[in-house]
């Protein structure tokens, strides 16, 4: 299996926040097109676009009202086509975020479905009897509150795992599956190279509708509303369909940190890869977790299962601060950049991380744009919390942290837009921006460029398996090898010096070194080394 995606470093573009081409304060395709040379130079080979379809944007596009069009905020279909063409010209493939689990309540399918109990589309969604104010069961929405919404007109509840404006489709209905395959075909015909499949493990729910239990921390254990019977069959069907139309890459969002839950979704006949939250979504830094999760994936994944690597996304705070753990965020970010680009797996780099962007904090409730943050704020107020406490809770849950506009330069609005940005620009933009980092050889941007260059040119980094993985104190050492090259990586996350393992020391002479340094026999505190031995060449 040597598909194109194994060689690619992907870059996630959060549509509204990357580059605004028409001055309305919202990112768009014209803006992205103008930055394609930047992406090419950075070395990314794939771009993941968050949803760009027409949407009321209750959840910034993850509430789709028309699956076969472009939201006017992002441009026109012609802009999209131009973008695909220009990206491809530069050797950049494009994957589209596709939300198969739910539609916007404004989607014509749902409007039909809710119009009467005997409408042909009634069964496209999940409707249940119940009494007003007494929902069918205790299932909670992932944004807070009940997952059931009472529909006055037809006297039934409908199910929504997220906001009430994001209505869950009934994947047990074959017509729904066909409709979604038709959507996939539409975008494949437009030149899309793959899909990021949103909350793919949510497609089916248990048809017994039993109450979910609660965990010790009082949070609901979503036992019956995800990873249910029928979901793997649905995934296989989607995969077979996509693969019958070419080497279409499928990456699934399976919201779990448990490798045992993630594993069944990927491999031959299923999704190519899933997001490995087991490695990527730690809330605090731990070398232990990194070492054990990498080792676990190595032991548990079969040959056709390939990991993914990411540490930030539009759903989580940027890792340079989230995982700093008391050290300089820039240093932490550099350590994780090395892991991201050299460990085994498909790397997903979140926009702005390559320049070390920081997390946005809301100073007042009006600043909170994200539905998850706003809901948490409102529930806290309802529970009697003070304004200050509620704002803190809102900030903790809000995903705005990583959604502030890309910082291109130090001009007004960080060069993102000539209008008023839809979300505040992070105040750090005068020091942290592309323009300034382009001229500084020691910048984060240059560091990433160097790493991506190595990643793109060393085959062991793309296809190679681990030969060795070893932990020494706070340092991690591994080697990856294929028939052309072997690559040795040492990352010391701690401040103490660590002696190099024998096998690492023997890795010289090497033709590429990230950190030029004397062979001192130890890895200096908080340092990283990459050595690549090109077998038989150079
Ligand atoms: C995924 C998306 C997230 C969205 C949710 C509901 O987790 O990444 O942004 O809110 O699905 O569609």
UniProtKB/TrEMBL annotation:
Q: Which residues form the Glycosyl hydrolase family 13 catalytic domain?
A: 12-403
The UniProt keywords, alphabetically, are:
Glycosidase, Hydrolase
What's the name of the protein? Alpha-amylase family glycosyl hydrolase
Belongs to which family? Belongs to the glycosyl hydrolase 13 family.
The taxonomic lineage of its organism, from the top, reads: Bacteria, Bacillati, Bacillota, Bacilli, Bacillales
Region annotated Disordered sits at 394-413
Give a yes or no for keyword Plastid in this entry.
no
| One GO MF term attached to the UniProt entry | hydrolase activity
Which positions carry the signal peptide feature in this UniProt record?
Answer: none
Source organism superkingdom:
Bacteria
UniProt cross-references to Pfam families, sorted A to Z: Alpha-amylase
Q: Which InterPro entries match?
A: GH, GH13_cat_dom, O16G_dom_2
Recorded hits in Gene3D superfamilies, A to Z, give:
Glycosidases, Oligo-1,6-glucosidase, Domain 2
């Amino acid at each position: 299996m040597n598909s194109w995606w194994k060689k690619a470093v992907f870059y996630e573009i959060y549509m509204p926040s990357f580059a605004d081409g028409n001055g309305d304060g919202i990112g768009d395709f014209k803006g992205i097109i103008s930055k394609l040379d930047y992406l090419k130079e950075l070395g990314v080979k794939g771009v993941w676009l968050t949803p760009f379809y027409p949407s009321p944007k209750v959840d910034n596009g993850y509430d789709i009202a028309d699956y076969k069009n472009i939201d006017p905020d992002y441009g026109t279909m012609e802009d999209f086509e131009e973008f695909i063409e220009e990206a491809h010209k530069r050797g950049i493939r494009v994957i589209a975020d596709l939300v198969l689990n739910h539609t916007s309540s404004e989607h014509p399918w749902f409007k039909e479905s809710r119009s009467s109990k005997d409408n042909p589309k009634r069964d496209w969604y999940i409707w249940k009897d119940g009494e007003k104010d007494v929902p069918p069961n205790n299932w909670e929405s992932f944004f807070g509150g009940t997952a059931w919404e009472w529909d006055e007109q037809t006297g039934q509840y409908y199910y929504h795992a997220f906001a009430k404006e994001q209505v869950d489709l009934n994947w047990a209905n074959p017509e729904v599956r066909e409709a979604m395959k038709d959507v996939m075909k539409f975008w494949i015909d437009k030149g899309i190279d793959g899909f990021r499949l949103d909350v793919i493990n949510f497609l089916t729910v248990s048809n017994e509708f039993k109450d979910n239990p609660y965990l010790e921390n009082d949070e609901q254990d979503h036992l019956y509303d995800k990873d249910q019977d029928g979901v793997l069959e649905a995934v296989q069907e989607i995969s077979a369909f996509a693969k019958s139309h070419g080497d279409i890459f499928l990456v699934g969002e399976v919201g779990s940190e448990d490798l045992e839950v993630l594993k069944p979704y990927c491999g031959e006949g299923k999704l190519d890869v899933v997001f490995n939250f087991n490695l990527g979504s730690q809330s605090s830094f731990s070398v232990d977790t990194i070492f054990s999760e990498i080792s676990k994936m190595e032991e548990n994944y079969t040959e056709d299962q390939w990991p993914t690597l990411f540490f930030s996304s539009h759903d989580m705070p940027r890792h340079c601060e989230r995982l700093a753990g008391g050290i300089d965020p820039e240093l932490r970010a550099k350590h994780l950049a090395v892991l991201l680009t050299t460990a085994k797996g498909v790397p997903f780099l979140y926009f702005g991380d390559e320049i070390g962007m920081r997390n946005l904090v809301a100073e007042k409730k009006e600043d909170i744009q994200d539905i998850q943050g706003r809901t948490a704020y409102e529930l806290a107020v309802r529970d009697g919390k003070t304004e200050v406490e509620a704002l803190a809770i809102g900030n903790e849950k809000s995903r705005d942290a990583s959604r502030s506009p890309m910082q291109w330069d130090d001009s007004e609005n960080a060069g993102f837009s000539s209008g008023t940005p839809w979300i505040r620009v992070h105040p750090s933009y005068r020091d942290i921006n592309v323009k300034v980092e382009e001229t500084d050889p020691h910048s984060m941007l240059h560091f990433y460029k160097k790493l991506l260059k190595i990643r793109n040119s060393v085959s062991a980094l793309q296809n190679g398996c681990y030969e060795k993985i070893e932990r020494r104190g706070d340092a991690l050492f591994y080697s990856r090898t294929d028939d052309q090259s072997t690559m040795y990586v040492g990352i010391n996350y701690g401040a103490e010096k660590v002696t190099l393992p024998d096998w690492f020391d023997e890795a010289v002479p090497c033709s590429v070194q990230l950190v030029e340094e004397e062979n001192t026999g130890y890895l200096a505190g908080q340092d990283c080394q990459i050595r690549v031995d090109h077998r038989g060449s150079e």
